[in-house]
Amino acid sequence: MSDPVLYGYWRSSAAYRVRIAVNVKGVAAQYEYVRLREGEQRRKPFLALNPAGLVPAWRDADGFVLGQSLAIIEYIDDVFPEPPLLPSDPRLKAICREIAYGIACDIHPLGNLRVLERLSADFGASAEARAAWCRQWIGRGFAAIEPRLVHFAGRHSIGDQISLADICLVPQVYNARRFGLDLTPFPRIVAADASAREQPAFAAAAPETQPDAPSASPP
Ligand SMILES: N[C@@H](CCC(=O)N[C@@H](CS)C(=O)NCC(=O)O)C(=O)O
Fold it and tell me: Which of 104, 124, 173, 201 could form a disulfide with 193, with the two C-beta atoms 3.0–4.6 Å apart?
């Protein structure tokens, strides 16, 4: 059987989450790159894989296909149980999911490429107006997550083990920096991001190290 395939894009934070999970689990996977700026996600053959027209998508060797980064990560966690990505304690597991869903459901969609494109096409938003939009929504979301980390973080977001919370947090902090958000009000988020990125699994998933990343990325 050949390896599963992860369809992604170097600067997609949703694909970045899955790359981290794949690396944490030590799963052998092939990578296929979908050029979002060229609109490949909205055309065949990618649409046949993920009708949502979004990366990431996952395809097993037998043809099983899955979209949605959190569904893919939880599937990988089920198929490759070690190390677990969720704490075993029910309350810590719920807090971990709260952080992950806060990022994936409340923050991330508002900064997605197709949303930013509509802001410009429908309302004439400039690049700076789009960045300010992203900063606002990421800042509001981080303001809800920071108190959780004050309470629950150890070396990582939830205690001392890498979890789904870190897997979602690090790519969102990458986006926050990309859009110029002042992270000073979020010291625990900054600390959790730095600790996680020291791990080889996170370093190897970093956007700028991906083969489809341009050597000098546009702002
Ligand atoms: N909820 C989805 C979101 C996926 C998503 O928004 N992907 C972005 C990149 S981070 C994308 O493909 N954007 C393409 C577009 O907006 O056209 C997930 O977690 O997988």
Answer: 173
